[in-house]
Recover the amino acids of this structure.
């Protein structure tokens, strides 16, 4: 049997989570991407469209398509940013706020069920491992020429 790699475990698990969320979102005539976007928009102050992509780790083109679809479904509205005349703020509509609650409930349910299966120590270790992976990547310790040895 081949050794399980860290990236394979992360990827396979995330694909299962994404599939699960998409199946749940389908019941609400939605997708995981729309739910994630709803959760990323500040429900009170709106969110600048330019900060939404980086906040979600998405490319502008993918996000544009999602936002266009969300606007057509009446989930969001775009308004000029009063602090930046060139910018646009994305606001949730009342329907968007309702759907945001559905998305939030789904995420909280997932967290609740998983947490019930883990001890405090396991959960703490999980977050420490995820933090370490994020740190190693953000500090460019993996593929930085200076850190490789020949």
């Amino acid at each position: 049997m081949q050794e399980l790699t860290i990236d394979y475990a992360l990827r396979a698990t995330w694909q299962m989570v994404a599939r699960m969320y998409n199946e749940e979102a389908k019941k609400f005539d939605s997708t995981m991407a729309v739910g994630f976007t709803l959760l990323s928009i500040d429900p009170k102050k709106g969110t600048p469209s330019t900060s939404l992509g980086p906040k979600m780790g998405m490319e502008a083109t993918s996000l544009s398509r999602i936002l266009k679809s969300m606007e057509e479904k009446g989930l969001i509205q775009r308004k000029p940013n009063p602090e930046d005349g060139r910018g646009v703020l994305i606001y949730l509509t009342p329907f968007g706020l309702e759907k945001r609650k559905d998305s939030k409930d789904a995420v909280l349910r997932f967290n609740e069920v998983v947490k019930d299966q883990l001890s405090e120590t396991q959960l703490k270790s999980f977050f420490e491992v995820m933090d370490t992976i994020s740190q190693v990547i953000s500090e460019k310790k993996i593929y930085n020429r200076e850190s490789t040895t020949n």
